[in-house]
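Much of our argument rests on the idea that a fold can be written as discrete symbols. Part of our work consisted of pairing the sequence of a single chain with a tokenised description of its backbone. The amino acid sequence and the backbone structure tokens for this protein are reproduced below.
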Amino acid sequence: MSSITLERMHFYAHHGCFAEEQAIGTHFRLDVSYETDTSRAQLSDNIADTVSYLEVYQTIQREMKKPSHLLEHVGNRIGDALLAEYPAIESVKVRVSKLAPPLGGELEAVTVEIIKDRCRQN
């Protein structure tokens, strides 16, 4: 089993509980790791024998375009989409960070981490 990680992805999206966040949008950072068996790809050097991180990125990008109120919902939706679309993914960890959230003070980010396992659908 191997872990593949897409690190520090940046998106501008419309997630948040405040009407302004939904209308104007804000910046988000994501880290997504997934576990899959890469033993065939290690020997074949063929992308068809692994889960393409390009395709995973495109799934994440698509899900980030769908507005949500909560980071928990965004992370869960991304995890569910990855498990549904890529049967070879055994588990996934999604870290969603809202950068500079409007909390009335100086704060770099708020982060929610969702971990989903195919054997234990959370």
